[in-house]
UniProtKB/TrEMBL annotation:
Cross-referenced CDD domains: SRPBCC_CalC_Aha1-like (cd07814)
Protein name per the record: SRPBCC domain-containing protein
A Pfam family recorded for this sequence: AHSA1
InterPro entries in UniProt: ASHA1/2-like_C, START-like_dom_sf
Family per record: Belongs to the AHA1 family.
UniProt organism field: Bacillus mesophilum
């Protein structure tokens, strides 16, 4: 019998040699996400730091699939934290971006929680564990060098 248990958290860190304000603006705006990672993301942050995010990729990956996901923005604290929920697996998971000034730039700490050991969650957790590492690399390259990787259509 398949028992649902909590999966380990996904944890990544990267150093980006730009000010924390620039990193936060890139992760907390539609224009920022679409510049380095997604194709048609929309997000709205309310005055209390909550809101909604909708992440969209078109013709993504080797199978050229269209992906749409997103959910609630739980916490948006300028230049400190951006937290949202989405559902790449069976249920919502929570993605925490934490921004810390470090030396001449920003330490970006990413943590994702909420996966179970269901087959769909396990597949999503493995994909996101790899994917967030790649995503943070894309964010770093975009912010430090202005380079954007997008597949040719």
């Amino acid at each position: 019998m398949w028992r649902k248990v909590k999966m380990p958290d996904i944890n990544h860190k990267t150093y980006i040699k730009v000010p924390v304000e620039e990193v936060y603006k890139t992760v907390s705006t539609s224009q920022g996400w679409n510049a380095w990672f997604t194709d048609d993301t929309s997000l709205e942050i309310n005055s209390d730091g909550t809101g909604e995010i909708r992440l969209i990729w078109t013709n993504y990956g080797s199978e050229n699939v269209n992906i749409e996901d997103g959910g609630k923005i739980l916490e948006a604290i300028p230049n400190k934290k951006f937290v949202f929920q989405w559902s790449p697996g069976e249920q919502n998971s929570t993605v925490n971006f934490i921004f810390e000034p470090h030396e001449e730039g920003t330490l970006v700490i990413l943590n994702e929680t909420g996966y179970t050991n269901s087959e769909k969650d396990l597949k999503a957790c493995i994909g996101c564990a790899v994917g967030w590492g790649e995503a943070l690399t894309l964010l770093k390259i975009y912010l430090e060098y202005g380079i954007v990787y997008k597949q040719d259509l």
